[in-house]
Design goal:
about 450 residues; 2 strands
Length: about 450
């Protein structure tokens, strides 16, 4: 009896881990870089993997012949049989070795079937609850007629990393290539991906999916990613959507982001959110992941939240249905539409009883904080805007002159989000009730142990 009381007392006092933490832990899949490291220690496994890399190099030059494809698939089966962890490994979005990890992921899926191209290579185990919390917090905002997209941009500028990287991509997307009237779309895409990967979602998604009730706000939202460079072709010609998808799938990063979108934004009439995975947050994050690739989507007008790819289905031939299906994943997707609508629309989010986790920065931000020598150059703090941004910038400056930036409260302040109310140090209600209940239980256990000893 004394032993039982002592063990229970240790559990309640936090010395031993709680039963919940022991049994509710969901292990993350093995990272592909780690799985390949184990494979590299085995000469036979490494030889099989190198063979697949040669197959991939040949496939990039021209389609594999039947015999060559059969030999490559035989090597792939032998590799996955010997090291099955390579077939189940995943990658983390935003980590510095992301592209290396994705390369390994797709090399062991040399000739993937159509269903495999819609399975996300990313591990969302630790991100799902965080994104649910973020969307829930955004839905609590009060729309008081203020331009929410202007406010989101001001909040971003108050956070040094967000403001600096936003200035960086605006500069990259508005500068013209010397001697031409064109922008450098490749450089623009790189800077946009850098912004979305390094800035916490509280700020980046707030800028992308701010709710609007008028066309001025809608114009700012549409121009957030500088669509004249990142989205549209400079000559105004739209490519075929299937051709665009084909080019995307030749690049490990682009096809990974597309697979992530198709997986997390798959619509379903059976869930409250309209998403098969029932997570509006994961859908928004997957959509944002496409920005900065050849499949960059964008808002199509200032008066709605409708989005689309910059492509059409002309010339699709007998693949017209496949092209239309891809196009409709953006234009007629209930899951995506609901997710965008719920981001910042009060009262529109279905009830969720899951307790949101404490907010944390994205993985790349955590790494940056540990690397003191990884700072942006000072010139990145200078905002250079194009003509399409001038009107919006002028509005922002006028509002700052009236109230001053010091009066702007961050839209997603870590000091007052739904995620950390009641957490230690915030004075929440949860911390007021936990202490007395534990003390009473410990006292009862002590009395029980004393009586049994007597």
């Amino acid at each position: 009896m004394i032993l039982l009381g002592t063990v229970l007392a240790l559990f309640l006092s936090g010395v031993l881990p709680s039963i919940k933490s022991i049994f509710s832990f969901t292990p993350s899949p093995t990272n592909c870089v780690k799985a390949h490291r184990v494979c590299s220690a085995d000469p036979q496994c490494e030889a099989l993997y190198r063979g697949l890399e040669l197959c991939a190099a040949d496939a990039e030059m021209s389609p594999l012949g039947d015999q060559e494809a059969a030999e490559c698939l035989e090597g792939q089966d032998a590799l996955l049989t010997k090291h099955p962890s390579l077939s189940s490994c995943k990658c983390q979005r935003g980590f510095r070795k992301e592209e290396q990890c994705l390369r390994i992921y797709w090399r062991v899926r040399l000739l993937p079937g159509e269903e495999e191209l819609e399975i996300s290579p990313y591990d969302d185990t630790q991100m799902a609850s965080r994104m649910t919390s973020l969307v829930a917090a955004a839905s609590l905002m009060q729309l008081n007629g203020e331009n929410q997209c202007l406010k989101a941009a001001q909040d971003c500028s108050l956070y040094e990393k967000c403001g600096s990287l936003r200035s960086e991509y605006i500069l990259a997307c508005t500068q013209q290539v010397p001697g031409t009237s064109r922008c450098d779309q490749h450089k623009c895409h790189w800077a946009l991906r850098r912004f979305l990967e390094r800035v916490p979602e509280e700020y980046s998604l707030g800028v992308l999916f701010c709710p609007c009730t008028n066309t001025l706000c809608g114009e700012r939202r549409r121009k957030t990613i500088v669509p004249s460079c990142s989205y549209q072709d400079m000559e105004g010609l739209q490519p075929n959507c299937l051709h665009q998808q084909s080019f995307c799938r030749r690049d490990d990063l682009c096809r990974s982001r597309l697979a992530d979108f198709l997986n997390n934004c798959q619509p379903s009439p059976l869930t409250a959110s309209g998403c098969l995975k029932d997570s509006a947050g994961l859908c928004l994050r997957a959509y944002a992941g496409l920005i900065g690739t050849i499949m960059t989507p964008s808002y199509i007008s200032n008066s709605s939240a409708d989005v689309s790819l910059w492509c059409n289905c002309e010339g699709s031939g007998n693949q017209w249905q496949d092209c239309l299906r891809l196009q409709r994943m953006f234009t007629h997707n209930t899951c995506l539409r609901n997710s965008i609508t719920w981001m910042g629309s009060p009262g529109s989010l279905p009830a969720d009883t899951t307790k949101p986790p404490a907010p944390r920065p994205s993985p790349i931000v955590q790494e940056d904080e540990l690397l003191s020598n990884n700072h942006l150059p000072e010139h990145n703090n200078i905002v250079v805007e194009s003509e399409e941004e001038e009107e919006l910038t002028q509005t922002e400056m006028e509002e700052e002159d009236e109230g001053g930036q010091s009066d702007v409260t961050p839209l997603y302040s870590e000091r007052a989000t739904v995620s950390n109310l009641g957490s230690p140090g915030t004075g929440g209600a949860a911390s007021l009730t936990a202490g007395p209940s534990k003390a009473i239980l410990l006292l009862l256990l002590f009395l029980s142990a004393s009586l049994s000893w007597g």
